[in-house]
Design goal:
By secondary structure, this protein is α+β, with helices and mostly antiparallel strands. It is built from 11 helices and 19 strands. Helix 7 packs across helix 8 and helix 7 packs across helix 10.
């Protein structure tokens, strides 16, 4: 029986997808639920699994094709998958002789995230030795290759490592490379330009002394992790403080639709996460109802899905307020751009020991600059400034978070 492999229903507001690459060739056997092909949308990579076991008889849509929901991608002849068997003694010998890095024939197997990493560094997959299951190349394999001596002999664009002659070594090569934007990068660019052209964005700053937060975190860090199985990070403090401030100044938790302001009585917070494919903003819902441990657990889960390329469109949609932390990259100060249709975004930055005057004396304190960018069409400067002051007060006296004062 011939089965049509079709593009699955795409997430809401997504009209088409790009076929990133096939994992199987025509004539190869396929197991039920085995991933056949990856489809890239504006924000996520979708896997298309085989609906039954059989053999791939025809590929209709080739790599790079733009497809829509319901389009036929390939044809599958349903049937039992043949599994080769070998004597136990031979298998045992092969296991003993098997090296840590597995050499495989044919194109190395890679995930969408690994393929993006290879493309970013202009590497051919055949250059990298895969240590994953069945010779699959992992992100660690790529990073190890980039740090090794082998990568120094690779000229960008070359499919295989080459030994450079004296003329190349002693001279200076001027190269250019034109690479099309990925769908995600193009979508990010589109949304950023749209925000700049639509909203009247203004940024206000303040600074916060994190002495008390750091002392509290240090005091209970081990106990917290032992009890809840997750680390106590700074983000939970900032997110909880933001939620309390949003309750006091609800317009910063609102969204703008045309001439209407939509006030939300719930707190779905987007946390900006950097991934191999670009910046993503997974949304953690009903944060006001979460404990610190529940928030940290959910944050770790969505961040992992973003890094693995398994994040869903549901994870990325909605959101009433966004927090971005440039401090993890060393940013001292920045002006974050709104994540429309939201009306405000909080920017965190690096923590630095700075001299501060406390009770008439100059002392070193762990300080962080905070920035809130807001839509001045609906938010007055007074509200934005008071919002940041509220966050500052709660973080400098964390007991306020417990007492909600």
């Amino acid at each position: 029986m011939t089965i049509e492999i079709k593009v699955p229903p795409l997430p809401e507001s997504v009209t088409d997808a790009t076929l990133v690459g096939w994992h199987k060739k025509v004539g190869e056997s396929v197991a039920r639920d085995e991933n056949l092909v990856d489809l890239e949308t504006d924000k996520v990579v979708l896997e298309v699994p085989a609906p039954a076991a059989g053999k791939l008889s025809k590929i209709v849509a080739e790599d790079g094709a733009t497809v829509e929901a319901g389009d036929v991608l390939a044809l599958l002849e349903e049937g039992d998958v043949a599994v080769s068997s070998e004597p136990a003694a031979v298998v045992s010998e092969q296991k003993e002789a098997k090296p840590a890095a597995v050499e495989v024939s044919g194109p190395p197997k890679t995930s969408p995230a690994v393929r993006r990493l290879l493309e970013e560094h202009d590497l051919d997959a055949t250059m990298v030795m895969g240590t994953g299951k069945d010779g699959r190349i992992t992100k660690g394999d790529v990073m190890s290759f980039l740090k090794s001596d082998d990568s120094s002999n690779v000229t960008p664009g070359d499919p295989t490592p080459t030994v450079m002659d004296d003329a190349v070594v002693t001279g200076f090569a001027r190269n250019e490379q034109r690479v099309p934007m990925t769908r995600l990068r193009a979508r990010i660019a589109e949304r950023l330009v749209e925000a700049q052209q639509t909203a009247a964005m203004l940024t206000t700053f303040n600074e916060v002394d994190l002495t008390e937060v750091m002392a509290l975190r240090s005091r209970y860090r081990d106990t917290f992790e032992k009890k809840h199985g997750v680390r106590l990070g700074f983000m939970s403090f900032f997110t909880k403080a933001s939620v309390e401030a949003l309750k006091r100044f609800p317009v910063l938790n609102a969204s703008v639709e045309g001439n209407d302001i939509i006030y939300h009585n719930y707190y779905d917070i987007g946390i900006a996460v950097s991934s191999d494919r670009g910046l993503m903003v997974p949304v953690i819902r009903d944060v006001d109802q979460m404990s610190f441990a529940e928030f940290e657990t959910e944050l770790n889960a969505v961040a992992k899905r973003a890094q693995d390329g398994t994040i869903s469109m549901d994870d990325l949609t909605g959101g009433t307020f966004t927090i971005t932390n440039g401090g993890i990259f060393g940013s001292m100060m920045s002006t974050p751009i709104l994540n429309q249709p939201q009306s405000a975004i909080l920017g965190m930055h690096t923590i630095q020991q700075r001299p501060m005057v406390v009770d008439g004396e100059i002392v070193a304190r762990p300080m962080m600059y905070l920035a809130v960018t807001y839509d001045h069409r609906v938010i007055d400067g007074k509200e934005a400034v008071q919002f940041l002051v509220s966050i500052k007060e709660q973080l400098e006296d964390p007991g306020r978070l417990l007492l909600q004062v």
